[in-house]
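Sample log: histidine kinase.
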Amino acid sequence: MISVADAAEDPDLRQILPKINGLLPYSGLMVLPPERLARIDPELAPTARIPIVATLRSQSTTQTVEERGLLSRSLLPVPDLEGKVAWYLDGGILFNRDTWIVDHIRDLVYDKGTLPERSIGTVTIFLDDVRISTNVPLKFPAHEGEAPERALGSLVSDEVKEKVLVNGEQWINRAFVFNDWFISAYAPLEDVRGQRVGMIYTGFSESPFIHNYLLNIIELGTILMLVLLVSGLLVYRGAYSLLLPIERIHQVVQAVQSGRNIRIGALDLDRDNELSNLAEQFDSMLDLLQSRNAQIQAAAEQLEVKVAERTRSLHDKTLELQSNVALLNETRQQLVTNEKLTALGELTAGIAHEINNPTAVILGNMELLRYELGDNADVVKEEIDLVIQQVGRITTIIRSLLQYSRPGEFNAPLEMHNMTSIIEEMLVLVRHSIQKQAVVLITELNATCPVQVNKPQLLQVLINLVVNAAHAMDGKGRIWIRTYDWLQQGVPIGVKIEVEDEGVGISPEQLGRIFDPFYTTRKDGTGLGLSLSYGIIKRIGGTIEVSSTLGKGSLFTMGLYREAKEERQNSPYEGLYFAGNYNEMSGE
């Protein structure tokens, strides 16, 4: 009992007094710190103290002990004889560690037989998010005969705390409770001031329900499989007589597709059976198809024979036409060449008569000059010898013209020579022709095999090629002269001579005509230099290969056999080879 005055002075009871209506009692929740619990009863503060237990799926906290107490406090007005309130009957329950109330609520909610085997019903009272009274076990399931230890001091999960404690809403759903999933219901608790101070929870474990659910599915599935198996056996036995003919038809279809010639035949069924009729029609179709295929094959073989005959005839006609075209082109080229040679023969007859007399005079005067000068001739000995030498070259050129126009009337003597000495002599002869030009001659003389040639004629060819190369570079650039042994299967059969320049090159249109007599692209050229060179090389059985690239230069390659092959009867252009990407180069 407490007097009205004492109740008015108590700060905790002052929160309840305004809510009392007349003589009606009032009960409400309040949260008290340890010192105020001790003022009510010294034993309450130690009882309310609960250590905080770290919990899965909850917020981490630095708090280690919950020392506050959650009480249900009640005031009952007691009137005096006059009917006025003189006293209050003050009573309450501390929920911290109170297991009786949560067990009692559990027994009311989860009556015996309402939950499946191994499922437990649980009730919890929370102060804020801390379990202060609960029958949620620390270990589930507990050992048989062992009293389960309660999860006091554990925390509620984050999602439940956010919805129930922070937002003030109810939670009816599955939730993670301490260490397992439970089908749960949470509701917020408010104190006498209307502030949310905790929660009340009830729920039952989910795993036994899932276990029973899966067990039921397995049982139903097993029953269904047995039913299907029995039904399948019955259907198979009923359809066995139908499946065998279909399988026979299927095997025959596969065999026919792979190329075998078989038929379905009798199926041991009634003649009126649809499958028997189908088999007979299929066999008739296969017989008809085989007959048609035989006819098609015979027609195809006849067609192949006719096509082969026509193809062979056409091929023979084509070869004959190609041969005639080649003969026509060769004849036309020979006619053109003969006409040019006829003109050249007439020209050389006059040149020989008109030039031989002046050259004889020049030669005689040079000899007379050397005689008259006597010892003083040594000063200009080199120039006199050079003039005499060049007069001899003029005579040789005239003879070459005669040889080119009438090769049967002139046979130049052939002798074995070393190619290096001929190249060195050619360099001396061309020195005066290119000494005023910025031309660099680079030699790579590696040939060791001697060859059978006419030295003056070969000198004439080499000089012509070098002078042409210098003209193609406008008198400025490099000219390479290379010699090396011509090998076949490792055995030397002659010599290869290369003359390469870095001039403007020869275009593809001009490349096919550079060896024609009188063809030239130079204003002061005669068009006889390359033509004469080609004739000289051809008559001793040699080869000339030409490759050119516009803007980069040209390469002339001569092949001379160890022994000249004068007896070979070549066509006018046999032994002449051209290579692709060609640039401009004029004939002398």
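Observation: Confidence is low (pLDDT under 50) at residues 567-588.
Observation: The CA atoms of residues 29 and 423 lie 127 Å apart.
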